[in-house]
Design a protein that fits this description.
With about 625 residues, this protein is of the alpha/beta class. It contains 21 helices and 12 strands.
Length: about 625
C-alpha cells in the first residue's frame, strides 16, 4: 500500500503572503518617501517659478516627472499604511512601474541631450538612467522570483491535497496563485523535550487545537490555541492540571517551561499528573497572535495630564482595533466565555474526563468562568491572586486598605504620601535625571497624577512595593529620581502590547453596582481613578458580556485561594468575596506577600496538600520566606 503523502506546512506560504514589514524596511520606505517628496517639491518649484515662457516639450517633461513622483508618493504611503508587506501582485506592479518610468526617463532625457549636442550631459544622463534602470530591473526580477516561489508552493499543496481526503480550499488572490488548505485534524501534537538548566531532558508534547472563532455565530472561521503537555510522574495517577496564565496576554506554555528549568523535581512533589500549559486565543504560539508593537509615545519632558494621556491612548487603541478588523479579526470573540470554552474543548480533545485548574490573576478569572460553565469536568481549582467575575475593574477602597496594611508599621507613611501628592497637584515639577539606558541627562515632567501612576505600578510587585516608603521620603526632600526614572521608561515604551488583553478586559466589563462603588471610592482614596487607568474599552468597540457573566460563581468543588495581604491588584477583599459562594473554599494569606505566586517551600507544600486532597483549615496565615 502506498503511504499517503503528508500535507506540506501552510506557514511557509503564509509567511510569504503576509509577513509584516520589518522596522528596518519601514524606515527605509519612510526615507524614500521623504526624499521623493523633496524631489517633487523641487520640480514643481522650478516649473512654476521659471520666468521665461517654456517650450511645450519642457512642460510635458516637468509634468511627466511630477506625475511619476506623485505616483511614488501614493504607492509608498499606501504601503506604509498597510499592516502587512506588499503582496506578489503589488511588488510586480510597483517594479514594472519603476522599470517603465526609468526607461521612459532615460530615453527622453538622452534624446533631448543628443538633440542639443550636449555630449557631457548625454553621458551623465545615460549613466544615471542606466543605474536607475538596473535597480528597477533588479526589483522586477525579485518580484518574479517571489511569484515563482508561490506557484511552486501551490503546486506542492495541490499535488498533496489531491492524494488525501481533504479538499483544496479556494485560491487566494495574492500573485493570483496563493492557496490555503486545511487538511489537518483539529488536534495536532508532536513529541518534544524540555531541557533543564542542569541538562536534564524531560519528555513533553507540543500541540495545537483548532476551535471556532465565535461560537455564537456558527458556522464560521476558526483559530488555533497552543499547548505544552508534560506527562505525569511514572507510577502515579492523578488528574491533569491546566495552567492558566494571567495578564490577560501571558503565556501558559512559558509558565510550564519555567516549572521545569530545575529538572521538575520541585513541581513533581506538588503535581503528580499531567501538566498542561496553554497559550490562550490571541496569545503566544496561538494563531492569530494579537500582539502589536504600537506605542503611545508620550512626551518625556511634560508633566503628565490624565486627559492628554487618555486621549492619546484612545487614538492608538482605536487605530489598532480598526486595523485588526480590516484584517478580518473579530475582536468581540476575544472574551473570557470563548476562552473558557476553548479550554473545555481542549480537555475533551485530550481525552480527560476531569481536570484540575491553576489560575493566577486573570487566569483565576478564567478558571472561575470555566468552573461556572463546565464545572462537571473540574476536580479542583487553585487560585493565586484572585480575580473574580466582577473584579476586572478595581476598587480604589481595596487599594487604600492595602496601603493601610503597608503602613501598619509606619504611621507616617499615609500622611507623607498625601503631603507629597498635594504638593505636586498644586505645582508639578521638572526633575533632571539620567536616562536609564543611555545615561544622558534629561528633564522629566512630574505631576501628582504621574506619582500616583508610579505608585500603582510599584504595587504590582512586592520588591517595588517595599520601596514605596523610601521613595516618598526622598520626594518629600526634593529627590524625584525614583518616579522620574520610571516615567522615562513608561513614556518611551508604553504601548498597546496585546490587543487580546484589551478585548478580554473590555468584554468582562464592570457591573453597575461595582461601577457605583468605584465612583464613590475615587474621591476618598489616595490613588483614586489611577488604578483603573486607562479605561479605553470604548476605543476597542468590544461589547461587554451579559450581566450574568459578572454574577457570583457558586460551586461545591474544592477551591484553594492563595493571596498576599499586600496585593493591591487582586486584593484580599476579592478572596473573601469569592469565598461566600464557595462552601468548599479555603484561604491562605501570605503576610507581606504581593501579587502573583512565589514558589516558596511553604507555598509549594500547601499546593501539594490541596491537590492530594488533604484537609486544610478554612483560613490560615503564613509569613513569606
Amino acid at each position: 500500500m502506498t503511504k499517503p503523502e503528508t500535507a506540506p506546512p501552510i506557514e511557509p506560504i503564509l509567511a510569504l503572503l503576509r509577513g509584516e514589514l520589518s522596522p528596518t524596511k519601514r524606515w527605509a520606505y519612510r526615507l524614500i518617501l521623504v526624499l521623493t517628496g523633496v524631489v517633487v517639491a523641487a520640480l514643481v518649484t522650478l516649473w512654476v517659478t521659471e520666468p521665461d515662457p517654456l517650450p511645450t516639450r519642457l512642460h510635458v517633461a516637468f509634468g511627466a516627472m511630477t506625475c511619476i513622483g506623485l505616483g511614488w508618493i501614493v504607492t509608498l504611503t499606501w504601503i506604509l499604511a498597510r499592516r502587512n508587506c506588499p503582496t506578489a501582485w503589488d511588488r510586480l506592479a510597483t517594479a514594472w512601474m519603476a522599470t517603465v518610468a526609468c526607461s521612459v526617463s532615460l530615453v527622453v532625457s538622452l534624446a533631448i541631450a543628443l538633440v542639443r549636442n550636449e555630449t557631457l550631459a548625454a553621458v551623465a544622463v545615460g549613466v544615471t538612467g542606466l543605474v536607475l534602470l538596473g535597480v528597477a530591473l533588479r526589483f522586477l526580477g525579485k518580484a518574479y522570483s517571489l511569484r515563482s516561489q508561490l506557484r511552486a508552493k501551490l503546486k506542492e499543496l495541490q499535488r498533496t491535497a489531491r492524494s488525501t481526503i481533504a479538499p483544496l480550499l479556494a485560491l487566494a488572490a495574492m500573485a493570483g496563485v496563493a492557496s490555503v488548505a486545511n487538511a489537518s485534524e483539529p488536534l495536532q501534537r508532536e513529541p518534544i523535550s524540555l531541557r533543564s538548566r542542569t541538562g536534564i531532558e524531560i519528555p513533553a508534547e507540543s500541540g495545537r487545537l483548532t476551535v471556532p472563532v465565535n461560537r455564537l455565530r456558527p458556522p464560521g472561521p476558526t483559530l488555533e490555541i497552543a499547548f505544552l503537555r508534560v506527562p505525569g510522574a511514572t507510577g502515579k495517577t492523578a488528574p491533569p492540571t491546566f495552567i492558566l496564565a494571567g495578564g490577560p496576554g501571558e503565556s501558559g506554555i512559558n509558565t510550564v517551561r519555567g516549572m521545569f528549568t530545575d529538572g521538575g523535581q520541585r513541581i513533581r512533589e506538588v503535581i503528580a499528573g499531567d501538566i498542561i500549559g496553554i497559550d490562550q486565543r490571541g496569545v503566544g504560539q496561538a494563531r492569530p497572535n494579537l500582539s502589536v508593537s504600537d506605542r503611545y509615545e508620550f512626551p518625556v519632558s511634560e508633566p503628565g495630564d490624565p486627559a492628554v494621556y487618555s486621549r492619546r491612548i484612545s487614538e492608538v487603541c482605536r487605530a489598532v482595533a480598526n486595523r485588526l478588523r480590516a484584517d478580518g479579526v473579530d475582536l468581540s470573540a476575544f472574551n473570557t466565555n470563548e476562552n473558557a470554552d476553548d479550554l473545555a474543548a481542549l480537555r475533551h480533545a485530550l481525552g480527560y474526563e476531569q481536570v484540575n485548574l491553576w489560575g493566577t490573576s486573570y487566569g483565576s478569572h478564567l478558571a472561575l468562568t470555566l468552573l461556572r460553565r463546565h464545572g462537571q469536568h473540574i476536580d479542583r481549582v487553585l487560585i493565586t491572586s484572585p480575580e473574580g467575575p466582577d473584579h476586572t475593574f478595581k476598587r480604589p477602597a481595596h487599594a487604600q486598605k492595602c496601603l493601610e496594611r503597608l503602613a501598619a508599621r509606619d504611621a507616617e507613611l499615609l500622611p507623607l504620601m498625601d503631603r507629597v501628592l498635594k504638593k505636586l497637584e498644586q505645582a508639578p515639577i521638572r526633575a533632571t535625571v539620567r536616562h536609564p539606558i543611555s545615561q544622558k541627562e534629561l528633564t522629566v515632567g512630574v505631576s501628582g497624577f504621574d506619582v500616583r501612576l508610579w505608585t500603582w505600578a510599584a504595587l504590582s510587585r512586592i520588591e517595588t512595593t517595599q520601596q514605596i516608603a523610601a521613595a516618598y521620603r526622598a520626594m518629600d526632600q526634593g529627590d524625584w529620581t525614583t518616579p522620574a526614572v520610571w516615567l522615562v521608561r513608561y513614556r518611551e515604551t508604553a504601548g498597546v502590547g496585546s490587543a487580546m488583553k484589551h478585548a478580554m478586559d473590555a468584554a468582562s466589563g464592570c457591573s453597575e453596582a461595582c461601577h457605583a462603588l468605584i465612583t464613590k471610592d475615587n474621591a476618598g482614596c489616595l490613588l483614586g481613578e489611577v488604578i483603573n487607568f486607562p479605561n479605553v474599552a470604548e476605543a476597542w468597540g468590544v461589547p461587554a458580556l451579559a450581566a450574568e457573566f459578572r454574577s457570583p460563581v457558586r460551586s461545591h468543588r474544592p477551591v484553594l485561594i492563595l493571596c498576599g495581604n499586600l496585593d493591591a491588584r487582586t486584593p484580599l477583599e476579592n478572596a473573601r468575596e469569592l469565598l461566600t459562594d464557595l462552601p468548599q473554599g479555603r484561604l491562605v494569606i501570605f503576610e507581606g506577600g504581593g501579587h502573583g505566586f512565589r514558589p516558596s517551600s511553604q507555598a509549594l507544600a500547601l499546593v501539594g496538600s490541596f491537590f492530594r486532597g488533604d484537609d486544610l483549615p478554612v483560613e490560615q496565615r503564613i509569613g513569606i520566606e
